[in-house]
Amino acid sequence: MKVTSLVVFACLGAAWAQQPAMPGSAPTGTPAPKIPELPDDTVLAILGDGTKFTMADFKRIFAALPPPNQQMALRNRGEFLHQWEMMRRLTKMAEAAKLDQESPYKEALEYGRMNVMAQAQITAAINAIQIEPGEIVKAYDGNKKKYTQVKVKAIYIAFSDDAASSTGKGKKPLTEAEAKAKAGKLKAALKGGGDFIKLAKENSDDETSRDKDGDFATLRYTDNIPDAFRAAVFALKQGEVSEPLKQPNGYYLLRAEEVNVRPLSEVRDDIYNDLKNDRSTQWLDQVNRDSKVQIMSPEFVGQPAAPPAAPAKK
pTM for this one? Predict the structure, then answer.
């Protein structure tokens, strides 16, 4: 057994990925193994000093492992037990030698403890945050634009500076100026009562929406879409058509087919999570503001040293 594999269940998941696969481990892509359904008092092994290692012990340790290590522990449970006992033995040897009181081990233990306790405090603080039902309703009523969704149809006019390229219809590509002019003419035709579906079928370079009578997507305000799209789409009333919207390779004309607000029942969990995340951020920001340090050595933090004080005049 390689010495480096001894800490495989205690180190970070990324480090585990560097270890060679253990005999009997499952190949990549197989279903993740599950924790055996055994009573907590089931004795899984007797360790070297006679200590009984139970299912409850395994669950307790398992919960503290990074996810990649958890899966490896489950895929070769016998090897996990062996490595756990080996780490216990090495730890006892180190403690007997008082290595935990020597540098750099003492400082590494202190740093590790600080990391664990800081994360524990953050988790406890977040879990303690309570969001009342009335707060959810208030957030919903006060920001319904955020929960608005618009079903849109589209006409897409592509352009390209590459003369060798072609649109979906095999036509010679338009220049940007030509595409902008064409989109403007289509906008004028629609304003004059033109049939959007007919114009989409005849002119749109987006084959997918063109074949569906121009149906493009149902967009939500929180979707990851270009700012120009978001501003234009959510300013439309039902039946209105946007001005030509420039994108890297074309211009869009969008018509709002349906405009509605998602019901509270559908977005309640999202609002709850948003409020809790906001409170968590506020709490952590406050902790950050309260963590004050007085820098006594400008040189240490890369700042120029203060000039020496001028001698007092006699």
Answer: 0.69
